[in-house]
Amino acid sequence: MEVVLYIGIGAILLGAITAFYFSVQTAGFKNQTVLEVEDGGAAALTPMLQAVRSATGVTGLARGRSASTLTLRMADTNRNPTVFDVVNGVLRVREGQAGVPVPLTVPRVQVTHFLVTNVAPAGTAAVLRFELTLASVNPSRRNEYEYSRTFLGTAALRP
Known about the structure:
With about 160 residues, the protein is of the alpha+beta class. It is about 35% helix and about 35% strand. The protein has a five-stranded antiparallel β-sheet, with helices on one face. It is elongated.
């Protein structure tokens, strides 16, 4: 009788330890997913803000207007124009007429929303507000791989 009791207690402990292990593992997957999206947002937004600050002008984006593509005029002819766009969920930048588009986002993260708005007051240089929503790529539809975040940034052309 005592042996059956000890086996029962052992089985309960083993079940609890197994459940705890899977809970910790799932939390680790979720943290990794969040980290990929957060890092991807910072890595994508930073070069856009820097490019705006070094641009000499904006093409095709009047004050108060929004667009899903940004074209910047640059003083450096090798970088003119600099174009940011989204194709198939990938944020890209192309510098110069002969430039090859370079992805700014990693394959495990996709862009679900990209909008640039010129919020400059009248009589001033362009001030651009960026809205960038990134989501983890989750073909398995498991909760621990599901995460999305909207990143906001504003940059002004320097006079």
